[in-house]
UniProtKB/TrEMBL annotation:
Gene that specifies this protein: hemL
Chain segments annotated as coiled-coil in the UniProt record: none
Record NCBIfam families: hemL (TIGR00713), PRK00062.1 (NF000818)
EC number: 5.4.3.8
SUPFAM superfamilies: PLP-dependent transferases
CDD domains xref list: OAT_like
Quaternary structure, from the entry: Homodimer.
MF terms (GO), sorted A to Z: glutamate-1-semialdehyde 2,1-aminomutase activity
InterPro entries: 4pyrrol_synth_GluAld_NH2Trfase (IPR004639), Aminotrans_3 (IPR005814), PyrdxlP-dep_Trfase (IPR015424), PyrdxlP-dep_Trfase_major (IPR015421), PyrdxlP-dep_Trfase_small (IPR015422)
Annotated protein name in UniProt: Glutamate-1-semialdehyde 2,1-aminomutase
Catalytic activity: (S)-4-amino-5-oxopentanoate = 5-aminolevulinate
One Pfam family linked to the record: Aminotran_3
């Protein structure tokens, strides 16, 4: 049924050329195109455990993990069995299933701040609806986000900072009318004065503050504890809702997600609305947002905030997510994952130091970041001021040695439970050579 040239073994270059004929830029999500680092994207043929193989049969140790979801590695046997069994029962019904309830209960069980969740199919959808819910619940229009945080590609969230403080933002994408982002205020991450001033100026009009608590879309930057604490206080004082976008950090930095990390430093801390994706779907299209029962009652069919989805709570995706959560809730899972990530980080730190390379790194649970600069950046501007050329050369040096890091300096990295000590040692050895080649 396929023309012979389709069955022939193609190189990455050939596939990329062919892809660009039928798909804009040859990719279905922009960062996959290697625009930031240059070169040809690898077309992945298959993956297993911590490895991926490209169309040419080259093996890579994978530190992207599908941009976060593959916390158990690829093709974990228990997850695979659950997915196959679910697929045999049916792909999609457009009617409720017990498995959706089980997944909702499994998420709620680990995150004390949420009493109810709604399942959707992508992080974008979850973030977009979380904003709608916050606006619907408060009856207010304005939202605050932070420069360098990505919350999916809903119109109102594709915004960069305006020229002055407390001015509303400008669209970062063509096709987003300025009127659509006129209620979105963009502030600097970790900047206490700006958030203070914004609330003072228009606190009673703000529906919510949305944040990536550990930002993974500007590499790896933590919101400082005083920053999170102050936002919580301001939200309470002015009746705004605090939204944690845990699409990346959820069930990845800790079983209780990033909010549990902040609750360790700030006893009793909780956001009002949480957004999840990636790990809760285990690699299938699945995301969620959750909150108190009171706030969630605003959603249709109970309340006036509309949200729906043909494939929401998909039976195969929920089977994949549930099986994944079952594995990661086993005792000691996160201790092991965190120790692995720590070993990788320490190895990279030592290799950079030995090579005399300016370097800093951070990690939490199974998520990490590194920068070619001596001290950890605290916001988007300082991330962007790090040495991009050096990062790009390092990325390609590692790729040539069979280590697949995120192809842009503003992305985080991910370790899975499938990465062995030998994989990590091989990665550090590749880094030693790569640093020397810089
Ligand atoms: N929020 C965050 C923090 C993300 O990292 C992402 C995706 N990288 C999204 C939202 C959007 O999720 P999706 O790509 O599933 O739409």
């Amino acid at each position: 049924i396929f023309p012979p040239e389709v069955l022939a073994v193609s190189t990455n270059v050939q596939l990329f050329e062919r892809a660009q004929q039928s798909i804009p830029g040859g990719v279905n999500s922009p960062v996959r195109a290697f625009r930031a680092v240059g070169g040809t994207p690898r077309f992945i043929a298959r993956a297993e455990g911590p490895y991926m193989w490209d169309a040419e049969g080259q093996r890579y140790i994978d530190y992207i993990g599908s941009w976060g979801p593959m916390i158990l590695g690829h093709g974990h046997p228990a997850v695979l069995e659950a997915v196959l069994a679910a697929a045999r029962e049916g792909f999609s019904f457009g009617a409720p299933t017990e498995r959706e309830v089980e997944l909702a209960e499994a998420i709620i069980a680990q995150v004390p701040s949420i009493e109810q969740v709604r399942l959707v199919s992508s992080g974008t959808e979850a973030g977009m609806t979380a904003i709608r819910l916050a606006r619907g619940a408060t009856g207010r229009s304005k939202i605050i986000k932070f420069e360098g945080c990505y919350h999916g590609h809903a119109d109102a969230l594709l915004v960069k900072a305006g020229s002055g403080l407390a001015t509303f933002g400008h669209p970062t994408s063509a096709g987003v009318p300025p009127e659509v982002v006129q209620h979105t205020l963009v502030l600097e991450y970790n900047n206490l004065e700006q958030i203070e001033a914004a609330f003072q100026a228009q606190g009673h009009e703000i529906a919510c503050v949305m944040i990536e608590p550990i930002a993974g879309n500007m590499n790896f930057v933590r919101a400082s504890v005083p920053f999170v604490k102050r936002i919580r206080e301001l939200c309470d004082q002015y009746g705004a809702l605090f939204v944690f976008d845990e699409v990346m950090t959820g069930f990845r930095v800790a079983l209780g997600s990033a909010q549990s990390v902040y609750a360790r430093a700030l006893p009793g801390f909780a956001p009002d609305i949480s957004v999840f994706g990636k790990v809760i779907g285990g690699g299938m299209p699945l995301a969620a947002f959750g909150s108190s029962r009171k706030i969630m009652q605003n959603l249709a069919p109970l309340g006036g905030v509309y949200q729906a989805g043909t494939l929401s709570g998909n039976p195969v995706a929920t089977a994949c997510g549930l099986a994944t959560l079952r594995e990661i809730t086993k005792p000691g899972f996160f201790e092991g994952l965190s120790a692995k990530t720590q070993t990788l980080r320490q190895g990279l730190d030592e290799a950079a130091k030995a090579a005399g390379v300016a370097w800093s790194s951070d990690h939490e649970g199974g998520m990490f970041g590194f920068f070619f600069t001596d001290s950890l950046p605290q916001n988007y501007a300082t991330v962007m001021a790090t040495d991009k050329e050096r990062f790009n050369r390092f990325f390609h040096a590692m790729l040539d040695r069979g280590v697949y890091l995120a192809p842009a300096l503003y992305e985080a990295g991910f370790v899975s439970a499938a990465h062995s000590e030998a994989d990590i040692a091989a990665t550090v050895a590749a880094a030693r050579e790569s640093f020397a080649s810089l």
